[in-house]
User: What shape does this take?
Amino acid sequence: MNAESVQVINPAGQDNQSFKPKAVAAAMDKVIASAEQVILGKNQQLRLALACMMAKGHLLIEDQPGMGKTTLAHVLARVMGLEFQRVQFTSDLLPSDILGASIYNKDNGNFTFHPGPIFAQLVLADEVNRATPKCQSALLEAMEEHQVTVEGNTYALPQPFFVIATQNPVHQIGTFPLPESQLDRFLMRLTMGYPDKHAERELLSGRDRRLIAATLKPTLTPEQLQAIQALVPQIHVSDALLDYLQLLLSFSRQASEFSLGLSPRGGLALLRAAQAWALLHGRNHVLPEDIQRVLPTVAGHRLQGKGGTTTQGSDSLATRLLDVPIP
Assistant: This one.
């Protein structure tokens, strides 16, 4: 397999369909067009979310309530044909409510494992920062290893596997800030923002978007998505582009305004996201502009300013990296 084509297996057993970067971009444009029937005026957010999924990453969406965070997750699951589960995080949620538990079967005298909602292809962790840290940590192994361990037994999760978590602003009542170790598990963090005037007018005067969402049909299969994911690491990255990426990493670790820079895993995340963004736009090579476009969403939640101030609610530190000149 090379950066020019990828075999996409039809789940119905029909002939394989050869995908090239421009064909991948066209397929993703159809996904976006379908999703935009419900998610109005958020083309860039949709593209970033798709790039995150193409790069096999997890997505954190932070915004105030009522901005469409949950709706975005529902719509992505529908248009990409993914099995979907939603978990509402609350202060009394237990890890077993997410992972599952072994229940005694009196008929055979054995314990039978009953999988929790984590066993889905796309899991929505709604208002993840309203749960206690113990419950939040139940997601760590699943997000990193794509498996869960319950009572000494390890269970593999379905493939593809994504977590989309929504988060309320940390200053709101009843929130528990996510620790840095868990924030690092999310490839991207983005915000929805208010709709523009045109989109909001359509939202106010049109049909209920939930009714429209219920009618959406998949435009992609999980097998096709996995094949596209396999192509992302093969998108060409030149030595000069790696030089630029290393300059960004070095600046984040040495500049005076940062107390915590990007880790090697953060650098890999930035590279993979840029490759996915390039493929999403029909190219088999990465440009500096691809890194710049994904940088705020990939780096913003990984950086820490002087005095321990994180950027969970702001991309100001991440955008500071954009001042680094392209060599």
Remarks:
- Residues 1-18 have pLDDT under 50 and may be disordered.
